[in-house]
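Re-run with default settings, no changes from the original entry. Doing this only to confirm the output is reproducible before filing.
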Amino acid sequence: MTTASRGSPEHGGSPEADFARRSVAMHSDPRFVELRRRLRVFVFPMSAAFLAWYLLYVLMSAYARDVMSIVLFGHVNVALLFGLLQFVTTFGIAILYARYAGRRLDPLAEQIHDELDAGSAAAPAAAPAADRTGAGDEKGAGA
C-alpha cells in the first residue's frame, strides 16, 4: 500500500525510526564526542573535589573531634562551619556548572539538537496526521 512512501524516503521507515537512526549515528559525530569530552572535563574533577571535601568533613567529624569542637565565635564551632560550607560549596558548584554549560556545552548541544530536529521536522510535514492513520489515502491516490 502507501506505507512505503511515508517517513524517510531513503529508508522507507517511519519518521520516528528515521529520527532514532540519525540519533544513533550522531553518537559517532565529532561534535557529539567533543560535547561529551567537555562535559567530562568539568564533571569528573568537580565531583572528585567535592567528594574529597565531603570526606574530609566526615572524617574530621569522626576522628578529629577536638579540632571540630573548637569554638570560633559565640556558639559556632569548626564542625558547624564545615557543615554550612558544604551547602555553600554545593550552590557554588551549581552556579559554576551553569556558567560553564552556557559557555562551553549549550551552544554545541543546541547545534547538534537543531540538526537532528531539522531532519525530523521535514518528515512529519510531508505526512499529515490523517495520512498516517490511513484516513487520507483517497486524497493521495490521485496525486
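The chain has a mean pLDDT of 80. The chain has one domain: 15-121.
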